[in-house]
């Protein structure tokens, strides 16, 4: 039996660097500056990721608080806004989840004719937690897209069970 992957699904597997990873490659119909601001402006980030923070500077604190599910903390290790010399933007931070080795998350944005290509890679993550993390990243990216479109994201977690089933098979 084959099933259609959810819209915007990511992939789990071994990357070019030989480490296990989660990778999402999405095209958002929003201009890169708007997506970058949603990710790096603390006031905007806190709207679509309530209770979470990314301090937009190298060495800045990162915190994703998922309530009873737990929290990930980290530190910004790279931050580069788009400019005339390089139209891409990148934010990279560590990811520390209690009981697991530290891993790395990279948000890469590049302009496209219709908006922004966003590639999120979470690498050096174990296979078992990757399934749960992939569900979380999927919902987070859906929330970002809705925020940038000025649409409510209250229902993005409603797809949790279907997403969990999909990523468990991935």
UniProtKB/TrEMBL annotation:
Pfam families: AHSA1 (PF08327)
Domain Activator of Hsp90 ATPase homologue 1/2-like C-terminal: 31-148
Species of provenance: Promicromonospora vindobonensis
Top-level lineage group: Bacteria
Signal peptide start-end: none
InterPro entries: ASHA1/2-like_C, START-like_dom_sf
Similarity comment: family membership: Belongs to the AHA1 family.
Protein name: SRPBCC family protein
